[in-house]
Amino acid sequence: xCINSCLAYTSPFVELERxxxxxxxxxxxFRLESSHGKEKVPQQEFHMIPIGPQLQALYRDPxxxxxxxxxxxxxxxxxxxxxxxxxxxxxSDVLHGTDLIEAFRDTCIGEDNLMLMFSMDxxxxxxxxxxxxxxxxxxxxxxxxDRRYKKKxxxxxGFIPRPNNPKNTDSFLFLGLYHLAVLQAEGLRFWDxxxxxxxxxxxxxxxxxxxxxxxxxxxxxxxYHGKHGCHLYYRLAG
Length: 238
Known about the structure:
The protein is of the alpha+beta class. It has helices at about 50-60, 60-65, 70-85, 100-105, 145-150, 170-185, 210-220; strands spanning about 25-35, 35-40, 45-50, 115-125, 135-140, 155-160, 190, 195-200, 205-210.
């Protein structure tokens, strides 16, 4: 990545030697490798953790796999209640939203499928200092509501170091979202220890969330610094 956090050298910037925003060199120096000759050493790096292997690891443990069957049971309960009464008596979870219920009804989202939420925010790693990095995470809706937001069940997607805010956030998110797109196209195979069978699952991105400043970066809009900064295009001037 650019040493000034402008962008990541991913497609379409993967072949560049200098940042097109600040003109800083991509690489610091060359390191001699006995088997491969010279290796380029980047001035700065960011890290992406693929979501696929993390989900496979979750389902390999029988206890965590059993807790991850909430979507399976809740989907059946919701459809059954609506079929019997014509409506849902209580709305207490994101799975009770109209769009998702329609996806359950037309079997777009089946009992073996996985549902994710994406979220991104700045992270202040040290007290009384400015935020030192950006982090994006995945939340699995297959887990029960009292578990999915706990720290031990949050899936880290990637880290974007400072010193500055990213200017091209898409370039940093590209690898993680490309990995997700492959899982959506080909399916994710994993061993479900609770069911004792292999599952090939479709992976759905249900929600994209962030706070105000982070949503500005994720959606590529002007944000609260502009006259009309609302990401919903509300006409109230700032």
